[in-house]
Amino acid sequence: MKISLDLSRAVWVKSSYSNGNEGQCVEFAPSIAATAGVVPVRDSKHPAGPALVFPVEAWTSFTSAVCGGQFPAL
After folding, report:
1. Alpha-carbon distance 39 to 59, whole Å?
2. Which of 12, 20, 53, 58 suits 33 as a labelling partner, its CA being 20 to 30 A distant?
3. C-alpha–C-alpha distance, residues 1 and 31, integer Å
4. 47/54 Cα distance (integer angstroms)
5. Three-class SS state of 54
6. Residue 4 burial by Cβ neighbours in a 10 Å radius (0-12, 13-18, 19+)
7. First-to-last CA distance in the chain?
8. Whole-angstrom Cα distance, residue 32 to residue 8?
9. Dihedral (CA of 57, 63, 67, 69) sign
10. 10-69 pLDDT, tens digit each
């Protein structure tokens, strides 16, 4: 099933793990998560590009694992 999600008014927040020099940055839209139950995620270098959309529970699990150091540093 394909669901259309309007992200034109989304407020994007840059990850606190981004390195700050416009390099490897991820942005997410928490306001959409609060209303739609999904978290849109995009590459900040390509804001007009596609966004991946994850269920809130999956995003929470992923960010908890990142914060907990469960992934090796690149």
Report:
1. 7
2. 20
3. 23
4. 17
5. strand
6. exposed
7. 35
8. 11
9. positive
10. 999 987 766 666 567 889 998 888 888 899 999 988 889 999 999 999 999 998 998 898
